[in-house]
Amino acid sequence: QEKSSRLSAALFGEDCEISHDQLYELLKYAALGKCHSATQPSWCHIYHQSHLAGVVVIVLHEMSQLHFYKFYLQFKHLRKVFRHRFTLTPSANFLASLYGEGANPKPQNTAQGLTSSSSECMPKSSDLQSDPIIRKYGEKKRGLTSYTLTLEEQKKNYYPIKGSPGCKGYIYTECDQQRTDSSPLFGLDCEMCLTAKGNEVTRVSLVDAQGQCLLNELVKPESTVVNYRTRFSGITKKMLLPVKTRLSDIQTRLKKMLPRDAVLVGHSLNADLQALEMIHPSVIDTSLLFARNEGRRFKLKFLAKAVLGKDIQCEQKLGHDPAEDARAALELAQFFIEQGPAKVAELNLEMLLTTEKLAEASQNKDALQLQGCRVQEQLNELPYLSKPCFLDCLRVTGQNPLLLGRQELGSSGLCQSNLSTSNKQILQRALEDVPLSTFSIIEFSLGPEYMASHLAGLCEKVRSKLTDMLTIYAGPFEESFCLKSVKKEFGRCGPIRSLRVVTETYQPYVCIQYEVLEAAQLAVESLNGAEVAGSCIKVQRPVTAAMLDCDVLIKELELDVENEGVIYVAGLKKSLTETDLQEEFSQLKDLETLFLPKDRQSGKHRNCCFLKFQKSQSAVDALEVINSWTMKGSTLRSRNALASGHLWRWIWQMKYSNEKQGGNMLYEKMEQLCDSEQDLRKKVKKLDHRIKKLYRSLQNNTLCVVLFPGVNSMHGSQSGLGLMGIKDDGGRSA
């Protein structure tokens, strides 16, 4: 039985703030495994990484933790599916940092004269010696046998190898004759469609050394086609209906057509041979032949234009033409062999690629300015890197990363703005293209009219509601009541931030503000109607328009998947250490973690803690036990957790920043926000539904990460939020 991937993360209490480097660490390992020095993340653990079906990152543009909790009830799918959550520091250049470009140096060359043939643009002799092509092959011309991949190179680049366990049932071409520099070259390329089995060949092309097409055949896949990938493959349902040719027929024909000393040429040819389920001992891979630093690769389309002066894979055509691609790869290999490494290095392909990217970026400049986007940041994100960025590492292993949204990957890999794209269009594209990619970044947005300009007003609304939820009123008391007794009784529910006597009423009341949501809720549940300081009192929260849905919100927080198996315990003596508590609670069955909150300023721990259990039923059983406990002479109170994970930390930050600002209410901003808030709720609800639809379409064993990147602008700064999990058979995240 195939193993399922599983994710384990210690994101509990204060250990839940993740940097962009740590996020990159997770995504790189999830997509690449142990390739390219990828290691298990330091802050979480992926079990059975090799069984992951893919990685999907959903980015909610210019949204933050603030948006998630302001519209918590509207994000119904997100809060019920993703168990693991973390705080994310905001970044001014989020997408670049996401796939590892943030810290890399920018190109030193200017864009002027890069396509000129003058001597000014020719690399100097010293530069030529450092060129990766010269370092790999030297400067002298060589015969074709010097450029065929060795067995070790084939293994490293995932070529099917004779006798390999993963190639059981593959057909060997039996071309065993020794190769010479006059051995015949053949260009090979395939197009695939997505079927229930995976990627299956639906078209195969073979060309000879003169560019003559020897084979250009449609192939009927064995399994039902799930996605024809027409935009890339050029294949339609109508084209395959009359086809009778099967993969076995193509394998037989290729074996007969290829001479015993044939050398196959292709661009990332390993993917074609894997799809053909064939093994051939002698290959030239043009994606490796035209070497770049640190294993990065040029695209076939770029090489055809830069080296041969030919335009291939044109957007006007319906899909790629495998015969055209096979011919282009063959001619590139012939050019390299005939001209030699020195002549190829003098083309300065790296600089030509930089020029192309600058040209693409400048074409979008006017549109970007109209939307108030920072064009210079886009130009600064050119992938001229000292080390391979995340996307390049993926391409090395034959994976095609997908980026959909307001910014899409152009043919050269540069982030390009697509300002007219709606969330509906992005979803439609994602449903079609995500199954074809093992790593996808999908970006949704609420639109610029709802982003940074409303941040201040939105922040005040959330802060005001949070304050009300942490506050309770208790009374009435007798005129001469003992305030110390009241503070002691209510303090058993959890840490108190402030307490004051309300004298505006006929009889005195007490207003208490707690530091954690659970404490306020526990006070309402356990002390309403109780006798405190000689009076039978009523305990309630403030009654405001924003608090009318408080009970619904509390109930949903209890049901939040992040709080499954977690309970809150109050009434602890402050003299007890974490070690003492671990010992006291050790008798509870399936206890996994204990979190003891500390005052963020003094560092002293509070009189409450959170207990996380491996099983939900164990948490239910523990509640019954703890509520009858007395620990070191102190009676304990407990309930289900409401804000056990990163939310606890965020609540503290929101309250503390409010105090530093003196609690100023930005009435003008709030009034502006009220006008559009109803519409905004509808948009958030629709956004949550689209994410749900995309998530349900994912294969089981897919790692899905949803990111609220955070906001860092002139209007203010707010931390981001990450939600993650691996989809299991039940549609939830593990």
Strand order of the largest sheet: 2-5-33-30-4-17-14
Number of strands: 33
Q: What integer is the average pLDDT? A: 81
What fraction of residues sit in β-strands? 15-25%
Uncertain parts: 101-121, 364-387, 408-417, 658-675
Organism: Nyctibius grandis
Keywords: Coiled coil, Exonuclease, Hydrolase, Nuclease, RNA-binding
Biased composition (Polar residues): 106-120
InterPro entries: Nucleotide-bd_a/b_plait_sf, RBD_domain_sf, REX1-like_exo, REXO1/3/4-like, Ribonucl_H, RNaseH-like_sf, RNaseH_sf, RRM_dom
For the structure shown, list the relevant keywords.
Alpha-Beta Plaits, alpha+beta, single chain, 36% helix, six-stranded mixed β-sheet, nuclease, seven-stranded mixed β-sheet, 734 residues, 28 helices, Nucleotidyltransferase, domain 5, exonuclease activity, exonuclease
